[in-house]
């Protein structure tokens, strides 16, 4: 794996874009609706720290490769295993907390159906991260899979950002699609075609919608969520 400052500069830039979106999304909630996060619970503080640390990796790691610092990149990559596990564990805990709040809803759906959104985020993140780690010796696949692992986790931040700004949910789709298109354009320019990892990332992002607005509405999904998390509290 040779250093390519220009190619890795794109992924470093994308890492910054994702970080700005995350900080904006959660920061605007703290500024406009501090009652949602105050007092700061330990689980929420840990979740925020882990979440931001993950997106910081998407900035740091491409930079290290561009500088030719492979040893440090590898060390941080090994540490990222623990960070990824912690992110998933905290995501499950935060989701359970939300589910047990009266009236919790995403996109106007009931609590059991709403669970599909964080569920797909965490499952798709796990798939992409595992593949990225497995393909860590294949630079082109590795960095795209890691980037898409970050993109699939943008939903909570984007939802907060656009809700606070009074913008409808389709803006979330537009932003994520814009990020995918940016990667596709980069693929065409740098590789002459769309990399398979980019197609996979696009497919997983697209799969959220039939799952969230289709399968999540079924009795089978509702029964499974209720069996695992119990019945949601009344409004």
Description:
With 235 residues, the protein is an all-alpha fold. It has one domain. The protein has helices at 5-32, 42-66, 70-99, 111-114, 116-134, 139-151, 155-164, 170-191, 196-213, 219-229. α1 (5-32) packs parallel to α6.
Number of strand elements = 0
Run of helices and strands: HHHHHHHHHH
The major sheet is characterized as: none
Mean pLDDT: 87
Shape, per Cα inertia axes: globular
Main structural class: mainly alpha
Number of domains: 1
What distance separates the N and C termini?
Answer: 55 Å
Question: How do the helices and strands line up, and which of them pair or pack?
Answer:
Elements: H1 5-32, H2 42-66, H3 70-99, H4 111-114, H5 116-134, H6 139-151, H7 155-164, H8 170-191, H9 196-213, H10 219-229
Helix pairs in contact: 1-2, 1-6, 1-7, 2-3, 2-6, 3-5, 5-6, 5-9, 6-9, 8-9
Features:
mainly alpha, 77% helix
């Amino acid at each position: 794996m040779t250093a390519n400052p220009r190619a890795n500069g794109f992924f470093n830039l994308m890492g910054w874009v994702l970080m700005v979106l995350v900080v904006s999304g959660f920061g605007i909630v703290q500024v406009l609706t501090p009652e949602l996060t105050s007092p700061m619970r330990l689980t929420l503080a840990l979740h925020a720290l882990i979440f931001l640390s993950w997106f910081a990796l998407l900035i740091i790691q491409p930079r290290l490769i561009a500088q030719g610092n492979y040893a440090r990149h590898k060390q941080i990559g090994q540490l990222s295993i623990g960070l990824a596990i912690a992110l998933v564990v905290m995501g499950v805990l935060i989701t359970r907390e939300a589910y047990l709040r009266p009236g919790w809803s995403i996109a106007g759906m009931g609590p059991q159906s709403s669970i599909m959104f964080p569920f797909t985020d965490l499952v798709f993140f796990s798939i992409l991260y595992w593949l990225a780690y497995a393909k860590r010796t294949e630079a082109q696949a590795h960095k795209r899979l890691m980037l898409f692992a970050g993109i699939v986790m943008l939903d909570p931040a984007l939802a907060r950002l656009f809700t606070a700004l009074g913008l409808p949910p389709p803006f979330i789709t537009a932003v994520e699609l814009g990020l995918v298109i940016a990667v596709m354009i980069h693929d065409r320019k740098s590789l002459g075609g769309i990399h398979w990892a980019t197609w996979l990332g696009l497919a997983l992002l697209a799969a959220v919608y039939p799952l969230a607005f289709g399968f999540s509405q079924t009795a089978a999904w509702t029964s499974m969520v209720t069996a695992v998390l119990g019945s949601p509290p009344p409004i």
